[in-house]
Amino acid sequence: MPYVWLGEIMKDVAVIGIGMNRWGELWQKSIRDLIAESALLALEDAGIDRVEAMYIGCMSSGLFTDQEHLGAIAPDYTGFCPVPGTRVESACASGGAAFRTAFAHVASGLSDIVMVVGVEKMTDVDGAKATFALATAADQEYEVYNGVTFPGLYAMMANHHMHKYGTTRDQMAQVAVKNHKNGMKNELAQFRTEITIEQVKNAVMVADPLTILDCSPITDGSAAVVLCSMDTAKKLTKKRLVKVVGSGHASDTIQLAQRSDFSSLKSTALAAQQAYKMANRKPADINFAEVHDCFTIAEIMVIEALGFVEAGKGGKATIDGLTAIDGKIPVNASGGLKSKGHPVGATGVAQIVELVKQIRGEAEPGRQVKNANIGLAQNMGGSGASSVVHILEGV
Amino acid sequence: MPSPRYWREMPQRYRYEASKCSKCGKVLFPPRIICPACGSRNFTLTHIGNEGKVVTYSVIRVAPSQFVDQAPYTVAIVDLGEGVNILCQIADCEPDEVKIGMDVRLEFRKIQQEGMDGIICYGYKGVPK
Predict the structure, then answer these.
(1) ipTM for the assembly
(2) Predicted pLDDT of residue A7
(3) Which residues of B touch A141 (CB under 8 A)?
């Protein structure tokens, strides 16, 4: 039986600070540098010098950098000791899950001002080790054991979607083209270059039908946000207040093969249902969204699961411009995972950074969404085995 | 791969052992201690079928380190009936011969090897019927 949110939020929660540096292959920076840099930027943006608790979204600092216990590293290197820190892990949805945990923490009244840092330092290992680390988000014994990769899992969803709905290669490629076009204008994005549909289709094949340009990259990076109760936010900041109005989180089977359908994302649909209910909003009310385009097909399936388009219509809607920066519902104005980069644990927090930036009207010219008042963030782990959805609104 | 980890999965990989829920009849592969469909904890031993149809597939061209020598190779989700779908490789045919709806039979094959000194790991692969 699907979980349905029934209760009431004890306290309204606002995001009052955001912090993020440019992402990329950051050889000169360690995981502790990445955490501290974004944390300090978020603190500065919030105009405060201390928080009461920290949550850290990170998928696999152990496999990527041999370092666990970020719950201690983060407060230590941010100068917050003895503030408590807790790492939250849910594969590529770690950042979104950490944000949701911090939201619940503040809403419950346990603490008033809480920071979330999302981080992943991925380039301290070579490509094979990074692929191995990422594959731990899938079922090790019944998926990875048999030789499937993450692109392979999404490629199977893509083939199923193409077979079932007639989604085309061009429609998928357009997701990457659109996101690069937006990311080109994002000063913090890893790949600030435009690409064409032909380039995407003719790039090196990774797992048929997905080429390297259908896939999000390996990235070092972090992002941080500060949450506090609405009452405190009104006293602390003169910037536009951004309220967390909806939050949802759901899971699905770890194995793709054990789902009833391979071309839809049930966990995202359920998480969205919860978030819409809490926010008392419907898909048509959302002005813009940041979604988990780890692969081009993922964005198509996500906009269907979020209810922006009907099942099977995501590809056509993308090529028709529905989700372009000047479309009816701009998706991934930041460049998305594809162009901005995908340091896995940081992605979900960076999506919140982007929503706040857009709602405040602080995005770079050319990628600022017009009338960006209500934004949605969707962050996903594994082949869709966990999904987190948040809705933020300017007040 | 630590040997106990490999050894634990042998009943599934070698003999296709699965559990059948005594209450709702759902077949679970691999077996679990609670039925995700009805919550029952009573099961009987059964075996998954060894014939099925390809539901979806992909060709892995950039492979994980232990599979690099095999690339390109096809992976697929195969519907074995009784509500059981599994992921496996499709062998004994060219990648471009694999199609959705194709009939395959599971066979016992070498899956991977732990370097030059480690154990050889076996399991099932689908082959064209």
Answers:
(1) 0.97
(2) 66
(3) 5, 9, 30
Q: How confident is the model at residue B66 (pLDDT cuts 50, 70, 90)?
A: confident
What single string gives the DSSP state of each residue in A207-248? Answer: ETTEEGGGB----BEEEEEEEEEHHHHHHH--SPPEEEEEEE
User: Given an 8 Å threshold on Cβ–Cβ distance, is A148 in contact with B65?
Assistant: no
Comparing CB atoms, the residue among B55, B59, B87 nearest residue A146 is: B87
pLDDT in tens, A119-167: 999 999 998 899 889 999 999 999 999 999 999 999 999 999 999 999 9
Domain edges within chain B = 1-48, 49-129
CA angle B79, B81, B87 (to 5 degrees): 30
Query: Does A160 participate in catalysis according to the annotation?
Result: no
Cα(B42)–Cα(A279) distance, integer angstroms: 41
Q: Do A156 and B70 touch (CB under 8 A)?
A: no
Which regions in chain A score pLDDT beneath 70?
1-7
Q: How far apart are CA A296 and CA A302, in angstroms?
A: 10
**Rounded mean pLDDT, B111-119:** 85
Is the distance from CB of B23 to CB of B14 less than 8 angstroms?
A: no
Q: What is the CATH number of domain B49-129?
A: 2.40.50
**Smallest Cα distance from B115 to chain A, Å:** 15
Q: What are the structural domains, with CATH classification, of chain A?
A: 13-125+219-236 (3.40.47.10), 148-216+244-394 (3.40.47.10)
| Contacting residues of A for B85, CB less than 8 Å apart | 257-258
Catalytic-role residue among A58, A92, A228, A294: A92
All residues of chain B having their beta carbon less than 8 Å from the beta carbon of residue A132 are 64-65
Say whether A179 sits in a helix, a strand or coil.
Answer: helix
* The predicted structure's pLDDT at residue B117: 81
What's the CA gap between A53 and A394, in Å, rounded? 24
Question: Is residue A215 flagged as an active site residue?
Answer: no
Nearest Cβ partner of B85 from A145, A149, A257? Answer: A257
